[in-house]
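Our collaborator T.R. sent over the components below with a one-line note: 'Predict the complex.' Nothing else. No constraints on interfaces, no templates requested, no preferences about which chain binds where. So this is a plain run: every listed entity goes in together, and whatever single assembly comes back becomes the starting point for the next discussion.
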Amino acid sequence: MADDAVAVRELTRRFGGFTAVDRLSFRVPTGSVFGFLGPNGAGKTTTIKMLTALLRPSSGEAYVAGLDVTRQAPAVWRRIGYMSQKFSLYADLTVGENVELFAGLYGVAGARLAARRAWVLAMAGLEGRERRLTGELPLGWKQRLALGCAVLHEPAILFLDEPTSGVDPVARRAFWELIAALAAQGTTVLVSTHYLEEAENCHRLILMNRGRRIAEGTPAELRAAMAEPILEVQTDDAPRAVEALQGAPGVLEAAMFGRALHVVVADAAVAAEVVPRTLAAAGRSVGAVRRVQPSLEDVFVALVRREGGALEG
Amino acid sequence: MLSATRLLAVARKEWIQLRRDPRSLILAFVLPVFLLLFFGYAITWDVKEIRLALLDADATRESRELVQAFEASGYFRVVARLDAPGELDRLLVRSRVTGALVVPRGFARDLAARRTAPVQLLLDGSDANTATIALGYAEAIVAGHSRRVLLQGRRLAMPLAAEARVWYNPTLESRNMIVPGLVAVIMSIIAAMLTALTIAREWERGTMEQLAATPVHRLEVVFGKLLPYLLIGAFDVALTVGAGLVVFGVPFRGSVLLLGGMTLLFLLGALGLGIFISAVMKSQLLATQVAMVATYLPALLLSGFLFDIAGMPPALRAFTLVVPARYYIAVTRGVILKGVGIEALWVQGLSMIIFAAVGLGLATAAFRKRIV
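Returned assembly:
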C-alpha cells in the first residue's frame, strides 16, 4: 500500500449539479503504466487534474507519492511531471527557451541541466533545432518536447492527459516507446487515452464512464472478463447491417468494427445461422463470418452500453 | 520557500514573450509617447489671439488707438471689420469670431469733453471659459488705456499697486501643468494595460495549467511577471518626462531620485492592479476593457488633471481619495514644476506605499494555481 505510487479513495468532484468524477477508487503500483480509458466526458481529465493538485476534490482522498493532494500540493508538484491535454508549452518561446524555463521552474541547474537538456533534445529529436519557435513545430515534435519538459526533473510519477490526440500513428507509436522507456527506468506513468489500441500498452487499465469506474484490470483480464462469444461479419453496408441486427434473436450487441461488424451473441453456433439469415433478409450482402477473440474495443463498447451509454457531446 | 531561480525563470520568459509580441511592444513603447504628444498638443487652456470683429462707428484717431491697444496685447486679433451691427450676429452664430468690439459714434468727442466714453464688448458665452478669460483681458486693456488717456504723459503715483508674480509656472503656460500631469495619467493606463493581458493570456492559451503543475509558487509567478513590466514602466516614465522636457520645454526643478522612488511605488500598485484584473477576468479581452475603464476615466477626470478637485461635489471629492493617479499627479507636478522634496509630499508618499501594498495584495490574493 505504501508502495503504491498513487492511491485514490472515493474521489469525487462536482461542478454545480454535475458530478464529473463519482466516488472513484483505485491504486497504481510504482513503476507501472496505468491507463485511463473512457469516452469524452468520462471524467479522465478531471481525475488527472485532481491528482496533479490543479483541481480541488469535492470529497474523497488521493495520495500521490504518499502525499495528500489536498494538503500537500507543493510537495506533489515537486515529484510529478504533467502534460496537459491541450498543448501547453509556450508557442512563442523557442525549443531551448522552453527547456530552460521548465528547468528553472523545476530547479534543474548546472551540469545536471546540461545533461538533461541534451537528453530531452535527443529524445524529442530536436537536436540542432533549439532556436526554432515551438509554435512552428509539427504536433508530434511538440508533444515529444512537452513530454521532455515534463520529465526534465526526473519525476517519480508522470501524468499524461491524452498525450497522443491528433498525432499521426507513426508519431504515436514513437511516443509510446518513450513511455515504455520511462517506465523501464522506474517512472510510474498515468496516461489517459481514447485510442483503444494504445491501451494495450498499459500494464493496468481503468475503464471510466460518466465519472465512474466500470472495469479495472490488465488488458488480458479485461478481455477474459468478456464471456460472450463475438462474431466478425463482413458485409457491404456496416451501419445498415447494425440496424438490421438490433433485436435479432440471440444477438446481444452489434457494432461496427472497421468496415466489418462485431456481433456479441449468446451462443456462437446458433448465431452463425441467425446472423447471415437476418442480414440477407434485410438485403445486405454477407461475407465471411468467423468467431474472434474480443478486443479491448469490444469490451469497452459492451461495458459502456451496459452502463447506459456515454454522455452526449 | 520562495526561490529566486524560479522567479527569474518566470521573469525571463515574460521578457522574451513581450519582446516577440508586437501588441505589447506598441503598448509599452509607442503608446506612451504618442499619448504624450497627442494630449500635450491637444489640451491647452491658454487663451491667445481671440478672434474679434470690430465695429468702429467713430473712426477717429482715438478709436484706432483703443483698437491698437487690444491688438498690441497679443490676446486679441481683429479678423473682421463691420459697418453695421446686423452683420455681427451672423459671424457669432457661425463661430467665425469669439466676440466683437463696438466703438460707438462720439467716442473721441466724449474723451475730449472728459466724459466717460463707453465701448461695448460682445462675447460668445457658449464657451464660458474662453469668454470669462477674454473679458478679464479686455477689462485690463481698457483700464490701462483709460489711465494713459487720463494722464496724457504726466506721471502720477497710484494709491495702490498690485504686483502679481506667478510662481513655479511664471508664464502661466498650461502646458507646463499638463505635461507632468499627463505623465501620471498615461502611466496609470499603460501600467494596468501591460499586466492586464499577462495572466489572462496564460489561462486562454492553456499554458497556465502547465505552469501550475510545476513547483513554482504563486508569488513567484506574480512577481516574476511584474519584474519586466516594472522596468518597462520606469523606462516609460523616463521617456515621457524626457519628451516633455525636450518637446514641450517643461522645466524639471526637483529631485530625479524622489520622482523615481515614488514612481516605482506607483508602478507596483498599478501593475499589481492589472495582474489582479487579469487573474479575476481570465480573458484578455475582458481584462483589457476592465483595466481601461478602471484606470483611464478616474485618472483623466477624477485625479485633478482636467478638473480641480476642490470644485467637485462632496461625493466625487471623497471618491478621488481612492484614485491613485490623484496622488501621483501631485508628485509629478510637485517634483517637476515646484521642485519640492519629500517634506511636502509625504502624504503622497504614504499613499503610494498603500497603493503599492493594495495592488500587490490584490494580485497575489486573486491569482491561484489551483481551481477550487
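Summary for T.R.: Residues 174-205 of chain B form the longest helix (32 residues).
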